[in-house]
From TrEMBL:
InterPro entries: NTF2-like_dom_sf, YchJ-like_M. Residues 33-128 form the YchJ-like middle NTF2-like domain. This is Zinc chelation protein SecC. Pfam families: YchJ_M-like. It comes from the Bacteria.
Length: 131
């Protein structure tokens, strides 16, 4: 799928089409919750958008640069739990499993991620702990 495919479902697994789901966030609209930011970051990995990943990363933990591995195909995202991260919160936690395929076959990445909302109203990824 490419970011220009208006009929395909969004890679994040929401069931909505990309232009109504993660597309606006990738274009700069703030995510309304930590979970939506998590979904948009998964879509950015799936679509190869390192600039978005860096811009949605908290400056306190963000790397200087990010190179994506083009041998990895991100296929599915499962959100298992969210804690806080809504409109009235400044922090949130999202537990997820991401399914990918690489040169050695299928793999899973399970993590509990921490998100923080900045003074500009944008949620950003801080860090995560593997589960």
């Amino acid at each position: 799928m490419s970011a220009d495919d208006t009929l395909a479902p969004c890679p994040c697994g929401s069931g909505a089409a990309y232009p109504e789901c993660c597309g606006p966030l990738h274009a700069g609209r703030p995510a309304p919750s930590a979970e939506r930011l998590m979904r948009s970051r998964f879509s950015a990995f799936a679509l190869g958008l390192p600039e978005y990943l860096l811009s949605s990363w908290d400056p306190s933990t963000r790397p200087e640069e990010l190179t994506l591995d083009d041998t990895i195909e991100w296929r599915r995202l499962f959100i298992s739990d969210t804690t806080a991260g809504g409109p009235g919160d400044d922090r949130g936690w999202v537990s997820f499993t991401a399914i990918g395929r690489g040169p050695d076959g299928r793999f899973e990445q399970a993590e509990r991620s921490v998100f923080r909302r900045g003074p500009d109203g944008h949620w950003r990824y801080v860090d995560g702990e593997e589960r």
